[in-house]
Amino acid sequence: MTTETPTSTPVTVAVVAKECLPGKVKTRLTPALSPEGAARVAAGSLADTLATVQALPAARRVLFFDGTVVPAGAEGFEVLHQPGGGLDERLGFLFDAVDGPLLLVGMDTPQASAAELAPVFDAPERDGWFGPAEDGGFWSLYLREPSGDLLRGVPMSREDTGAVQLARLTDAGLDVGILGELLDVDTVADAERVAELVPDSEFSRALRAETVGSTR
Question: Name one Pfam family in it (predicted).
Fold first, then answer.
């Protein structure tokens, strides 16, 4: 852990999040978990993500939120509500709405740490940073000069989403650094793998609470 906080780093960090309501989040964790249990696990993942972002030397923090009740842990975050449309359109809106360097982080990688995002803050002058996900998507994206046009039209939730998004950036002539690959939590198997990586996380504790006594 560093003792210095480079407050001059002009990076806005935005967490893309949904309100953790039963039946609305982590639906692929059911029926192994109840809808209520899946929502509690999602809330744990979001709590860990917010804590990680709180620890980053960001100039500004934004919760890009689909919901009504802002989660605990979002103190100091500006809330920007998501518009309608597909995910690519919503992300495009975000990257048009924020001025200056913008780092996007999803809520489905509770194992993401400040250390894994440190390259962005070590070299914010780079055109972009891209965090690939194991399932073919991406868990993080940084643009020094945000532009929604670089995201709109990218097919989301597909095995080639990350490849298409990265190609969109490089085809635009951007110099893009690559962050470490992480596993998005989509299935129970994913959740168990990630929980082993961060056993002391809110996510892991929530998952254990839901699976105690289950036969697996």
Answer: DUF2064
pLDDT tens-place values along the chain, 216 residues long: 444 444 456 999 999 999 999 999 999 999 999 999 999 999 999 999 999 999 999 999 999 999 999 999 999 999 999 999 999 999 999 999 999 999 999 999 999 999 999 999 999 999 999 999 999 999 999 999 999 999 999 999 999 999 999 999 999 999 999 999 999 999 999 999 999 999 999 999 999 999 864 544
41 within a domain of the structure (yes/no): yes
Cα(140)–Cα(27) distance, integer angstroms: 22
User: Rounded to two decimals, what is the model's pTM?
Assistant: 0.92
CATH of the domain at 168: 3.90.550.10
Query: Which domain, by its residues, includes 95?
Result: 12-211
Six-digit token string for 19: 């309100």
Question: What is the SS3 assignment for 202?
Answer: helix
6 within some domain: no
Count how many domains the chain has: 1
Question: How far is the C-alpha of 46 from the C-alpha of 200, rounded, in Å?
Answer: 15
